[in-house]
Design a protein that fits this description.
By secondary structure, this protein is an alpha/beta fold. Helices cover 36% and strands 16% of the residues. It has a single domain, classed as Alpha/Beta hydrolase fold, catalytic domain (Rossmann fold, 3-Layer(aba) Sandwich).
Length: 264
Amino acid sequence: MQRRVVDSNRRNGVRQGSVVTLRVTPNPGLRLFFFPHAGGSAASFRGWPAHLPMDAACYAIQLPGRGDRLREPPFTALTALVDNLAIEMQPWLQPPFVFFGHSMGALIAFELTRRLQAMRVPTPVHLFVSGRGTPDRRSTRRRLYDLPDEELIEEVDRLGGLPGSVRADAELMHLLLPTMRADFSVTQTYVFAPGPPLECPITALGGTHDPDVAIDQIAGWRDHTTRTFTMHVIEGDHFFVDSSMLRVCGILFKTLSRILQITA
């Protein structure tokens, strides 16, 4: 009964705190939370629910500094970001629930799961990490968050994260750069602290032509769970989640359907 009351107060497209409702499902069988890449917003996942099981309520995280929170100062450190989400999301984290994160979002989802596990509160029944190497492996990429504007833009463009229409809009780029810098600070100042592996299965996804994340780095996620590990290599660059969205949603669909059968 409590699940039904809580979900009846939420409508598609509405944001409460950092959580944007993408699809309301009456008395859902599970809840799926999306965590976007650096510079990304909840809108990145707006079209995904149409390709996922109807019994899954879908939400996306909208961090400060983007979308309708553009004027709010963004986080620059992962610890503070995760501290905030671990408290703010508690009313939403009714089991069973699943996390999916791409790139920076994968790191956030992983560290949030660790935090919830340490707090001895409900944790995800499955974690999807996409386009991100293992957290214990230090990146060899040069620091991006203190680069001059043009060099930062070039680097993001190299990864495939800047549509031509966005790059050509000087005013929009001026608005987006502070958030991009803050997000790179979140990922590049992060230092992995050894601890117990996760107690949920992990599915890791990587792109065949990702310039920054090698396939062996994706495979290394198997060391971060005591449960089952699955890996999928998908055609595309760092943003294969956009170019191969239907393939990624197909993988999600199969796993979520299996979870729904188990928890029914």
